[in-house]
Task: inverse folding
């Protein structure tokens, strides 16, 4: 019986994580839109260093 409770709790936690990620992406999109087209989200040119 407690196993189904744990599975349900895990599902709820995973759904909360997905919602938080979606909301943070929406916040980033809104911030980028409010900043205007002058700022792009392209990676800096020195991205070979972390490869």
Result:
């Amino acid at each position: 019986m407690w196993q189904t409770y744990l599975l349900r709790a895990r599902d709820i936690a995973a759904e909360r994580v997905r919602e938080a990620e979606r909301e943070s992406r929406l916040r980033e999109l809104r911030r980028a839109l409010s900043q205007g087209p002058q700022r792009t989200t392209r990676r800096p040119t020195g991205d070979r260093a972390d490869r």
Remarks:
- The chain has a mean pLDDT of 84.
- The CA atoms of residues 3 and 9 lie 10 Å apart.
